[in-house]
Predict the structure of Protein kinase domain-containing protein.
Amino acid sequence: MSKPDLGVEIDDLMCIEEGDMLFFSTGAPFKIPGNEDHSNAEDLGAGGVVGGYRVTSLLGRGGFGEVRLGVHQLTNEKVALKFILKNEMGSLGDVERTTTEIQCLTALNHPSIIKLIRVFNEPNHVVLVFELLEGFAGDLFHHLAQLPPGGVSEEEGALVFSQILAGVGYAHNQHICHRDLKLENILLQ
């Protein structure tokens, strides 16, 4: 079994300032494609262009919107485009939390944390452009659930745990605390 690299998923996270620390907490849970209810889903731009990125396939859906694959029209760089529906932000508090989330994410630059590249303010959406986790192998929760009895080797477990600690430690050193660190929020590569 190959050793997984991982990025801590910063998706559907809100960042709240308390004293001298910033705390992340989640909004609605993120859903893997195929498990969502499309009855009220709005098309968030498949086939369109946002900020020079061609919007393509659905990667996932969350409480305020969805994440799609984006390909830059000039460079062919692939990114993850997180569309946050403005009409799903029901209060000024939601808008303030989203603004604070963006401020927190721009403060983070670590190999174990997915990087926010840019932000676009579109008429119906706020679009967060994240680096794309190449070779995405799912989240840690689903990875562990699919393992045979006996689970992960001690070496692999130590490697993954050390990468999680490195990312969390870095965020803490930036005075940012993730309040909803769970297996589903850790992406494997």
About this structure: Residues 6-188 form a domain with the Transferase(Phosphotransferase); domain 1 fold (CATH 1.10.510.10). Helices lie at 92-106, 140-145, 154-173. DSSP finds three helices and eleven strands in the chain. The CA atoms of residues 3 and 157 lie 9 Å apart.
